[in-house]
Amino acid sequence: MRGIRARTGLTGPRTGLRGWGGVAAMAFVCALAVVCALLLPRAAGPHTAASAAGGGRTARAAQAEADACTDPQDQSVPPSTAEGTAIAAIKKRGHLSVGVDQNSFNWGYRDPNSTDKNVQLEGFDIDLARRLAKDIFNDSDPARIRFQAIPTTERVPAIRKARVDVVVRTMTITCDRLKDVAFSAPYFVTGQQVLAPKSSDITGYNDTLDGKKVCSAKSSTALDRLTADRKSGELASSVDISTVVPNQLDCLVRLQLGQVDAVLTDGALAASQAAQDPTVELKGDPLTPEYYGVAMKKDATDLEARVNKILEDYRKDGSWADSYRKWLAPTLGADFGPAMPPEPHYRAG
User: Fold this and answer.
1) Cα 15 vs. chain centroid, distance in angstroms?
2) Strand partners, 264
3) How many Cβ atoms from other residues are within 10 Å of residue 318's Cβ?
4) How far, in Å, CA of 215 to CA of 203, rounded?
């Protein structure tokens, strides 16, 4: 296996983190999230004789579009406060429906150690979701937002089947996903990174993974990376990548049980997982940069533009930085990145 560590200028999240109890309880919550997800039907496109006749042309066009896609994080529409059919429908309904995680520590989770039976979802993504609802309705009433916990595998189907208006769930903007959903400008940048026990001889995404079992989440960019590198030969055939789970936290549980040797996931998520278990740590440098965005339906252009306007305000008024310091600075460090969101760039027109 050749070295495949692509340096990006990202500062690696800090290790040597303070432990956080209740991982077993978090795993239970994760299981509940999967059960909830079963209520979300998977998207399935109808096939007619007409569509079959043009299938070859459509496939070629889609492939050409994918091949031409570069810098997917810069493909969102410019910010605007103009209202169209998407925002009108949300306002008529009276609340914003948001797909989130409920088991990613510091991003979107319910604290299993909380003594408050009425504890709400909390974390960096949850703060942003609440801000979206507040600004769309110009109202901070909690009833203006409704959360739906969805696993990694259901993020795109939940949007396409209109089960949620937006997904705010550490979702990386990619060319493939842009074929199915629209994204806001990025609100966070991270990179793929290896998580493994401190006692392990694994040193990163390199030949120390040879002969090891690596866990990733289904429908994740980590799995895409592992699969592509296996196909190209960059990843040794002796690396077992067959352990694929519905949620990122499931990989941490597998790691704790000794069922896998390492996890590949976003470095920001891995840092939060390491904070839950002081016996594991991040190994090596982050790989290619990945940008998180708010996802929504492709034809909800007015909502996409409004979300981008809200994100600009969220950055400028210090709310992004406040949320970062509260939730992420303890694991990523105050100087990560640095601690500011990536500068947005929008597509022309």
Assistant:
1) 21
2) 194
3) 10
4) 16
Instruction: Note the pTM of the prediction, 2 decimals.
Output: 0.77
Distance from C-alpha of 270 to C-alpha of 335, rounded to nearest angstrom: 17
Question: What average pLDDT is seen over the chain?
Answer: 82
Q: How confident is the model at residue 22 (pLDDT cuts 50, 70, 90)?
A: very low
Residue 177 CA to residue 237 CA, distance in Å, equals: 28
Neighbours of 102 (CB within 10 A): 26
Sign (positive or negative) of CA dihedral 197, 199, 202, 204: positive
Q: What percentage of the chain exceeds 70 in pLDDT?
A: 77
- Quick check: bond before 338 cis, omega within 30? yes
pLDDT at 47: 36
Going by C-alpha positions, the residue among 197, 199, 232, 201 that lies closest to residue 215 is 197
pLDDT tens-place string over residues 247-276:
888 999 999 999 999 999 999 888 988 888
Using one digit for the tens of pLDDT, what is the confidence trace for 276-302? 898 999 999 988 889 999 999 999 999
What are the tokens at 232? 């190209």
In sequence order, the 6+-apart residues with CB closer than 8 A to the CB of 224 are 174, 176
